[in-house]
Amino acid sequence: MYSQNELNHIRWQCRRGMKELDLLIEPFFDEDFSKLSEKEQQVFVRFLEESDLKLFRWLLRGEIPADPEYVALVEVILKCHRERSGI
Asked: What is the C-alpha separation between 43 and 50, in angstroms, rounded?
């Protein structure tokens, strides 16, 4: 479980400065992060340490991360985005 300060820090890390990423990552954190298991939350926090270019390629260009935990997380993020967007 994360403290409020830790959650605020994670929320800040979700702000990537690239609109395309912000439209995926920030809503995911706000609406879906709390529904993840503790392990999945840890993977998400680690995922945010990656470069914007990697995140862009994985989330928007369909490239597959080498880390299987990231593969699963990308699928969850995109699924949640599709559900929110009605796609």
From this structure: 11
The CATH code of the domain that includes 31 is 1.10.150.250
Distance, in Å, from the CA atom of 43 to the CA atom of 86, rounded to the nearest integer, reads 26
Domain count, the chain: 1
pLDDT digit string (tens) for 56-87? Answer: 999 999 999 999 999 999 999 999 999 998 87
| Closest listed residue to residue 45, CA positions, set 17, 66, 64, 73 | 73
pTM: 0.94
Containing structural domain, residue 51? 4-85
